[in-house]
Each structure stands twice: as structure tokens, then as C-alpha cells.
């Protein structure tokens, strides 16, 4: 199966944003990954966990297209590194989610495929559809936004920043 240039470009853009996040969390202990460093509740481990959950959920939505709400999509615990969780385990979950997303995108016949979104508390009253392309763009935006958050949290933690660590 050949991959379209558009799928290749968008998948590469997502991979680049993931890599920025991975640079930001490189070399951290579990205690550092769980530590709040700003007025926000965000922690580096929580950001990794949320992005893993997000890729899992949006990949399911993109591939199933049945409008079902993926398990854990609305769980607020996805934003926090829970007691007993480790950064290496969260990073492995994120890597597995990334692989599944990449495989799903590569397997799609067309990014224009219309996908029924699940109903959420913020959904409009009528059914909402996004293309697989829009879902992929949403994942890129979400990853980029949270990679920026992670950079701020890391800089407040120990002065490290992604740009200097590339």
C-alpha cells in the first residue's frame, strides 16, 4: 500500500511534535514528572498521560467512526500522574498510542473519510462529523499545545528547555 504525500506530511508533523515533548521529559525522575511547578495543575507526567489517552481515544474515533465515546475520554484523571505510575510506563503507553495512530492513518484509504464524533457534554445537539484529516490535525494541534505547556513546566522545574536540549 502506498501512502499519500498528505498522509506522510501530516504524520511527520505529528511525529515532530511528539519528539519535542519527548525531549522535554528526557532525564526526569518519577518524582520530577509528578511535580507541579506552576500555578497550573499540569505536571509533565500528567501531560504525557493525557496525550497518550488522547491519541488512544481519537484513533479509536477515527477508525471506528461509530460515534461511541472511547473509554476514559472524559476521565479527568488522565491529566494527573497517579500514585504508583511511573514516567517510563507512561512513555511506553504514549509510544504504543503513537504507533497505533500512525498505523491507523497509514491504513486509511482517504483522509476525507467522514467520522461521526461521540456525544460529549460540549457537543452540539445535532450529530457532528469530522474528516479523518481534521482529527489528525486536531492531534497535531493538541500535541503542539501540550508540548509547549510541558516546556514551561520543565523550565520552572529545573531551568531546562526544549530548544537548548535539541
From TrEMBL:
Protein name as annotated: DinB family protein
The record's annotation in SUPFAM superfamilies points to: DinB/YfiT-like putative metalloenzymes
Entry-linked Pfam families: MST
Which species does this protein come from?
Answer: Streptomyces coeruleofuscus
InterPro entries referenced in this protein's UniProt entry, alphabetically: DinB/YfiT-like, MST-like
Amino acid at each position: 500500500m502506498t501512502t499519500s504525500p498528505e498522509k506522510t506530511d501530516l504524520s511527520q508533523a505529528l511525529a515532530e511534535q511528539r519528539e519535542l515533548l519527548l525531549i522535554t521529559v528526557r532525564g526526569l525522575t518519577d518524582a520530577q514528572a509528578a511535580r507541579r511547578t506552576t500555578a497550573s495543575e499540569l505536571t509533565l507526567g500528567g501531560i504525557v498521560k493525557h496525550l497518550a489517552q488522547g491519541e488512544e481515544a481519537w484513533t479509536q474515533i477515527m477508525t471506528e467512526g461509530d460515534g461511541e465515546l472511547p473509554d476514559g475520554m472524559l476521565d479527568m484523571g488522565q491529566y494527573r500522574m497517579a500514585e504508583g505510575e511511573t514516567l517510563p510506563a507512561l512513555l511506553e503507553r504514549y509510544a504504543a498510542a503513537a504507533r497505533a495512530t500512525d498505523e491507523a492513518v497509514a491504513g486509511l484509504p482517504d483522509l476525507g473519510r467522514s467520522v461521526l464524533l461521540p456525544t460529549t457534554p460540549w457537543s452540539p445537539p445535532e450529530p457532528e462529523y469530522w474528516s479523518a484529516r481534521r482529527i489528525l490535525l486536531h492531534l497535531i494541534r493538541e500535541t503542539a499545545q501540550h508540548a509547549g505547556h510541558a516546556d514551561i513546566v520543565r523550565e520552572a522545574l529545573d531551568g531546562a528547555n526544549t530548544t537548548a536540549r535539541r
